């Protein structure tokens, strides 16, 4: 009997095709959910279930996920191409 593939399963398979184990961080390797939305301390999976993100790794621990102040600052930096910290070097 064939099992129905969920949206989560399809998204995990797509991610695994381009990222080892389908995740970009070892801390998320055992969390078999696809997060499609974040806000503050919360994350939502592909089926719409909300979780509290107790890990809050890589920055969200400071201001939470999807903080409008951070989003605006990043948008301003990208718009002005003020991203010299990404590894640009002077041409000799």
Overall description:
The chain has a three-stranded antiparallel beta sheet with strand order 1-2-3, with no helix packed on it. The mean pLDDT is 79. It has helices spanning 7-18, 60-63, 68-80; strands spanning 35-39, 42-45, 50-52. It is built from three helices and three strands, in the order αβββαα. It has a single domain, classed as Aspartate Aminotransferase, domain 1 (Alpha-Beta Complex). The longest helix has 13 residues, at 68-80. The relative contact order is 0.11. It is α+β, with helices and mostly antiparallel strands and 92 residues long.
Rounded radius of gyration (Å): 17 Å
Instruction: Please identify the top-level CATH class.
Output: Alpha Beta
- CATH overall fold name: Aspartate Aminotransferase, domain 1
Unreliable stretches: none
* DSSP strand tally: 3
Give the helices and strands, then pairings.
Layout lengths: L6 H12 L16 E5 L2 E4 L4 E3 L7 H4 L4 H13 L12
Antiparallel strand pairs: 1-2, 2-3
